[in-house]
């Protein structure tokens, strides 16, 4: 275990929240590990992640595991388990639960899921480090009224507002419902992880209080998004429940709203490299609260093999 | 040419805006014409329209025709042509044009498009009658901020608020931009045209003033939509610019919002059978204005063959 020795006084490789938007090259590897035949991902999967900035793994979990996770998810969402109010985000204009934060701390089964070798083992290989959970949540996009989530790079926010030094973090989305093109799937722009778009505008105080419902600062301009979409295209993560989507912290992503009757739900874990632990925010007065940005992890997570549920 | 002889005092085959939602069987044919080898649609196309309630016709217009229509569409949207304000609907929360009404009256090229044999000829065959334009518009769903359009049957509104007696009208959407699953395409539930869902709730006065931005009355309940979506599934109309989508007046449809940079634009014509001309509204105090519901057509449209532009 290495200590984070990042000198915030003298180093900021990704300055952002500037007077004007600015493009720069990524200064970090995408795949930190060295592929060998023993790696938990195939060579093709590893190369695909490196090239596109994401990887869709289908049928990772068995139907029995998926059923157990869905049951637990419904229980958490029902409100019967007494989740503290500050761990919950509701839909704009309603009381329907949109997000449950600190998922691993709320629930033993989801904690076990976060530590599963099929996910965390693959991520740990890609990052070539022990990992801990920077953020952990259950997303619920209801049918009929599910709202959109605008385009953003997670790293831009995590760097600016949480103090994450380097691009050495990977998100995993575990689909708990079948996802197709029409019920607001995760959309990704392949290849956008190779550029960092420093965003225009100073970070307002307590930005996260509004940005979780509708992000205004820390998102690229229409011009930048149009350029990226034309150059790279837009893909989306479809698959049946149990599919896992891994994506790099700097891949541009978002999702449309959902008027179909079919809800979209997923468990979402952000794995950060232990050596990349957060420091002071690079472009905000104070760090975001701990439910968004784990600031003092006890240690790397203990990866576990075997069946869930 | 037959005169509309519908007796509104004694007949309402589709009562709606009731105390409670109610399902009933459709009482009209879907395809009124008799297919022969000379028909403007193939037998398979005709049967598909009858079964699903819609039909997607690809590559109907040449690239040159599409380019001419796109150019004209941009001109109309720019506002330089001086369209009267009451023919224009803007996006909620912005001044961006969402819809231009009375499209055939605004523009000679789009008038010619509406009368094109490849569209109007096919519709006239399906309805087995001369046709006129009940409504005519240009829809523009901008990139990034295009809003959703909630599920509805057009006929329910046209019957209740415009006084359209029977299900003998067909809409044609002519795509002016490439449409895929992600930029808010038209979604349709195949087979839903065979049931009429009488909606709950009285029609508020001037309902169209808000319903065009966000429809509250005249839409099915979540339960009804869930039942239909589970039974029939949800399809969507994708295709490159120049694709034509024909759909029955009672097919349940809607569209999601669009955060992609790619706008979605289409010309939209509602063809009503000449014998099905509107009478007094069946469930509203006064008919909607003429830009939504042509109330006194001079005569059937003159269908034209040949190249457009």
Automatic annotation (TrEMBL), chains A, B:
Enzymatic class: oxidoreductase
Q: Which family does it belong to?
A: Belongs to the PhyH family. EctD subfamily.
Under InterPro entries, the record lists:
EctD, Phytyl_CoA_dOase-like
The record, for Gene3D superfamilies, names: q2cbj1_9rhob like domain
Q: Which reaction does it catalyse?
A: L-ectoine + 2-oxoglutarate + O2 = 5-hydroxyectoine + succinate + CO2
Molecular function (GO) terms listed? 2-oxoglutarate-dependent dioxygenase activity; iron ion binding
Keyword annotations from UniProtKB, A to Z: Dioxygenase, Iron, Metal-binding, Oxidoreductase
Q: Which domain of life is it from?
A: Bacteria
Q: What is this protein identified as? A: Ectoine hydroxylase
Identify the coding gene.
thpD
Q: Which cofactor does it need?
A: Fe(2+)
Q: What is the lineage of its organism?
A: Bacteria, Pseudomonadati, Pseudomonadota, Alphaproteobacteria, Hyphomicrobiales
């Amino acid at each position: 275990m290495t200590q984070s020795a990042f000198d915030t006084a003298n180093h900021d490789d990704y300055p952002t929240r500037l007077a004007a938007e600015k493009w720069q090259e990524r200064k970090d590897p995408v795949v930190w590990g060295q592929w060998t035949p023993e790696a938990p991902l195939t060579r093709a999967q590893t190369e695909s992640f490196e090239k596109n900035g994401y990887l869709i793994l289908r049928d990772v979990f068995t139907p029995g595991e998926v059923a157990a996770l869905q049951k637990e998810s419904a229980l958490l969402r029902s409100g019967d388990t007494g989740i503290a109010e500050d761990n919950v985000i509701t839909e704009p204009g309603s009381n329907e639960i949109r997000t449950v934060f600190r998922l691993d701390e709320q629930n033993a089964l989801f904690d076990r899921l976060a530590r599963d070798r099929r996910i965390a083992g693959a991520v740990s290989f890609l990052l070539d480090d022990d990992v801990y959970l920077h953020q952990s949540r259950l997303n619920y996009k209801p049918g009929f009224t599910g709202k959109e989530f605008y385009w953003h790079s997670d790293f831009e926010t995590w760097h600016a507002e949480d103090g994450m030094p380097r691009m050495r973090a990977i998100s995993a989305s575990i689909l708990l419902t079948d996802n197709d093109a029409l019920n607001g799937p995760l959309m990704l722009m392949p290849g956008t992880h190779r550029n960092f778009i420093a965003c225009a505008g100073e970070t307002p105080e307590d930005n996260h209080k509004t940005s979780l419902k509708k992000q205004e600062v820390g998102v690229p301009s229409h011009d930048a998004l149009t350029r990226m979409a034309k150059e790279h295209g837009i893909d989306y993560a479809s698959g049946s429940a149990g599919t896992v989507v891994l994506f790099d912290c700097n891949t541009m992503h978002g999702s449309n709203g959902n008027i179909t009757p079919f809800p979209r739900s997923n468990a979402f874990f952000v794995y950060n490299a232990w050596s990349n632990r957060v420091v002071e925010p690079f472009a905000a007065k104070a760090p975001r609260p701990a439910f968004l940005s784990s600031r003092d992890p006890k240690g790397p997570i203990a990866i576990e093999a075997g069946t869930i549920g």
